[in-house]
Each structure stands twice: as C-alpha cells, then as structure tokens.
Amino acid sequence: MHPVLRTVIQRLGLGVVTLFFVSCIIFFSMQLLPGNFAYAILGQSATPETVKAFEHEVGLDKPALTRYVDWIKGVAHGDFGKSYADYGSSNPRTVATLIAPRLWNTLFLAVMAALIAVPLAVSLGLLAALYRNSFFDRAVNALTLTTISFPEFFVAYILMMFLAVKAFPGLGHPLFHSLSNVSRDTPFLERVYRCALPAFTLTLVIVAHMMRMTRAAVLNLLASPYIEMAQLKGATRRDVIVHHALPNAWAPIVNVIAFNLAYLIVGVVVVEVVFVYPGIGQLMVDSVTSRNIPVVQACALIFAATYILLNLFADIISIVTNPRLLHPR
Amino acid sequence: MTAGIDKGPAAVGQPRARRTLLDRAWRELKKAPPTAWFGMIVILGYLILALFAPWIAPYGQSQVFDMPYSPAFYEPGWDPHFLLGTDQLGRDMLTRLIFGARNTIGIAVATTMLSFSIGGSLGILAAILRGWFEQLLSRVVDILMAIPSLIFSLMLLSIFGSNIPNLIVIIAVLDATRVFRLARAVAMNVVVMDYVEAARLRGEGLGWVMRREILPNILPPLVAEFGLRFCFVFLTIASLSFLGVGIQPPTADWGSMVRENATLITYGSFTPLLPAGAIALLTVAVNFVVDWFLHKTSGLRDEH
Q1: B-chain residue closest to A147, CA distance
Q2: How many CB atoms sit inside 10 A of residue B164's CB?
Q3: Is the complex ipTM higher than 0.95?
Q4: Which domains does chain A have, with CATH numbers?
Q5: Which of A263, A329, B1, B171 is the least buried, fewest Cβ under 10 Å from its Cβ?
C-alpha cells in the first residue's frame, strides 16, 4: 500500500477512536452526580414521586450503558434527545431543533472570521519571517504579543465602544451594530454587516496566534541546511522561497491554520455572549447556567468533534503534502 | 569565604569567589530590556494591591451605598466620594477593583500551583517509570486534550456546580495535561543522565530522585511554562466568570465585574473596560517577563 494512504488511514482510525472516548467522557461524566439533576431541574421542593416520574420520562432509570448506546444511536441520526427545560410542557422541544439554527449562525460567524483572518495572518507571518528583525517584524511582534494577552471580551468591548457606540456621531446612526441579533430571514448582506464586529473580534484574537506561529514555522524552515545550500549555490531569493522553502512550508502553515481555527471554537463562546449573537456558544452557556444537561452534552460533543476533525484535517494535509512521503524510495 | 574578601587588588590571579545569588540576579536584572522591567513593575504593583487590599481600598468589599451607577471622575456629575463611580448595586468600583486583584489573582495562582503539582509530578514519574504507566497516562492526556478546555470546563461546571473549589480543581486538572506533557518531555532527557543512575544505585528512593535529582535540572523550562500557564488559567477563569459560571457574586472578581456592568458600554461609559483592562494589563506584563526569561534560559540569540 502507498505509504501516504496507509498513514492517512491510520490517522483516520485514531480520530475515530478519540471521538469515541470523548463521547464516553461527555456522556459518563454526567453519571458522577446522578439524582442531583432531577432536583436542579424540578427545584429542591420536588417530591420523590415527581423525581421518579421525571427520571422515567427522560430515561434516567435505565442503566447508564443502555442510555449511552441509545444516545450514540440517536446522535448518529441527528437526534440529541429532549431538552430538560421544557419538561412537563405538552410540546417538548428536541435538542436538535434548538441547536440547528444556532449551529448555522455560529458556522456563518466562524467562516466569516476565518475568511478575513487566514489570508491576513499567513501573509503577515510570511512577511515578518522574510524581513526578520526589521522594524516591521518588531512592531508586529510586540503588537501580537499584546493582543494575545487580551481576554476576548476586552477586545470585543473595545471594538464595540469605538466602532459602534462612539463612532461618528455626525453620521446619525452608529457605524456598526453593537449587538448582532440576526434571525433566519435576515438577508445575506445585512447578516454580514451585523456580524462585522464579532467577526473582527475573532479575527484580531486569532490573527495574532496564527501570525506568530506562521512566522516561527517559516523561520524554523529557513534555518535548515538545504536552504543555505540553495542560497550558496546562487539561487535567487525568489527561487529559494518558491521552489525550496514553500513546498515544505505548506504542512506547518496548514497545521497552524487548522490549530487556530480550532481555537476559534473557544473564542466564539465568549464573543457570542458579548454581542448577544444567537449561536451555539451562547446556547451552551445558557444551558450550563440552567443545568440543561442534554443541551450541554450536545453542544460539547459538537464543539469537541469540530476540534478533533480540524486537527485531523491538519494532520492529513501535512501528510499528503509532505514531499518525503510523496516520493518513497 | 565571602564575596567581599576577594574584591581587593590582592585577589588578582586567584579564582574569583562566586557571586551571591542576589548579586547575580541583580546583574541580570540590570541587563533586562524595558519591556521586562515594565512587566516586573506591573506585576509587583498588582501583588501589593492583592496583598494589602483591605488597607488600600477605601471601603469594604461588598459595602453597598444608596447610589447605584454613580459616574466616575472622567464623566459629568462625578461624586468625589467614589473615584471610579459605583456599580449597578451601588458598590464602589475602585474598592471592587482592588479586592478583585486579590480574589482573581489568588484563585489563578492557586489553580496554576495545583496544576503544576499534579502535572509536574505525574510527568516526572512517567519519565522515570516508563512502561505501561507512561503509556496509560499519555493516552489519557491525549484524550483530555482533544476537548477544548473552555468547553470541557463549562460542561464539568454544569455537572458539579460552580463554586470556587470546584473551579480550581476542574481547571487545574484540565491544565495539568499540558504541564504533564512538558514535564515528561524535559524529564526524559534528564532521566538518562549518569547522576540519576548513580543516585538510584546509591539506593535513593523514588521521591528523592524526583525532587533532588530531576526537578532542579528541569526547573527553567517549568518556570517559564508557569508564567504562560498562569496567563492561560487567569484568562480562562476570567472568561468563565464573565460568562457567569466562574467566581460567583458577591465575591469581587474582574471577570464578573465586566459582566455586571456590561450594559453601561452602550451608553458610552468606560467603566466596564476598567476590570477588563486590569486583566489585560496583568497578562501583558506576565507575557513580557516570560518572553525575556525564555530568551535568557533557552540561550536563543535570534535577535541581535
């Protein structure tokens, strides 16, 4: 078998195993404090009978293993179970109907941020590496180190303050919306405009990481002996970069991009709360506060699966683009 | 022999006495770049605020006055009793900020220390014992790290409930995974040294080998990592508190202060930015110092 194919299959297998264990952790950590939930949902004054009825209703009286298998089966069909919040109402909502529109909103925001951040960060990182120790490099370095140290909500509120609340009072209306409330039938351009501030915040947060890591990866590469060899034999600067450095640089750069897109997942939670954006991160925080466990589990599983898939994707790209594996002896 | 004896001209030609630790530290400090100095002064300032909060703060931590949303000195209608105004319940912002330093930094330091004792000792132990112990721990760590830590801690807090001990333990355990990886990796290089072998043959116990032979030799990277992990933990706790599932009221804490006063920002008030800025300033300062320290200890000389 071709070595590339074999390694890719190995990685995919490893990813599936990781996903399995992660789903186990997400499901079984809930078992650590059983019984508590019924009271958390129904209130401390609930009678033992109500608790029993509730446990029966949501299936808590069955053995944990059975429930896990049912849960996984459901998840595979896109069914994440019923939300605890509507317990007792005549028409209980499923977790899936709660999540679906919000997942789409979050994806929209993340893709928008990524489309701005990735080209910006990679080109800044490449420039900083190529013009190392120049004024540009130092300025960008200090700036990104500062941005990295800022909590997301600080960046978010600063942007909100200066681009939405205080920007151009002569305009008659704020430059950007300070709160990003979108609904299903918001037209595309309006949606982009309303998402501008959260997307800028996420961009600022990940550009710093991505740019620093790109710079480090390229610098690391430029220090290798074969680059010096190419320079010594008289290849032009452009030639060295395009033919010698870049083919090997793709793997680390793609790795950096995927790693930081995974980081977006964490950033998105805080940013959605700041801008009251109806996404999955805000849903998760709300459900944590109300201890709506099925929703928390579903959100955690979606976030973790995205994270694992992005990292897997990065691994596979770096395997496929590795010149040493592409030309086996 | 003290350092003072050898300083005279008679000592020329003789080996110089070792400088005392303090002396060497001072010489290094004098060469530190301005960013590192800035960082150290800021950190010192924060520590003083945190340690002496009850004496510095003008009022009590949750002392309520009958004038909520009193404006700060940079806003019209300022009341000189409250330098930075009051919050939504009428508590003095300046007092809350000062006490916030104590609570927020204290909890973050406790968490980081717990995470280092768990991750560090398990990492060194894995490097010494190898075999199934190391394999098992490494796989567990791989899986724990496959879940983004903010998401994981949100989930665990929803299960165990948010209070300060839970917060510290959950974040410390999740963060210990990264410390474990680093400690194991650096300890691997030290375990194979002859002096470790000698200590073992001498019959020293596992604890001695870990503490006296390995730990001192892997300290520099761990110290730098301590700074970085502190920043990370500090930001995670601040984010969780901001989301309302971290440190709970009425404890003064910067993350929850931002959350409580957030609505003011739509009226153009800078007040919610103050606690957020306090968080940012401390992490910037720690990062500057760690950057300098890493540069010093790794022997990297890429900037001329």
Answers
A1: B284
A2: 18
A3: no
A4: 19-79 (no CATH), 103-326 (1.10.3720.10)
A5: A329
